[in-house]
């Protein structure tokens, strides 16, 4: 598990949506659900990333997970 956590911290995951998918893969899930996207948009403090939902679904598919 420690090796997997190190991979999560600095390996494949570059964005929060990809980190969520990697965490799901590490935990052995088969399905993963995005949360908290399209909830906050408060420029200039926080600006949501473009196509975050689409990126989440594509990242899940690359890892063989069903995204919902």
Q: Which spans have pLDDT < 50 for at least 5 consecutive residues? A: none
The overall average pLDDT, rounded, is: 78
What structural class do the secondary elements suggest?
mainly alpha
N-end to C-end Cα span: 26 Å
Helix coverage percent: 40-55%
DSSP strand tally: 2
For the CA atoms, what is the radius of gyration? 13 Å
Task: Return the domain count.
Answer: 1
Query: Oligomeric form of this entry?
Result: single chain
Compact summary:
Helix content is 46%, strand content 6%. It has helices spanning 2-10, 16-26, 52-62; strands at residues 31-32, 66-67.
Explain what you see:
The chain is mainly α and 68 residues long. The protein has one domain. The protein is built from three helices and two strands. It has a two-stranded parallel sheet. Strand 1, helix 3 and strand 2 form a beta-alpha-beta unit.
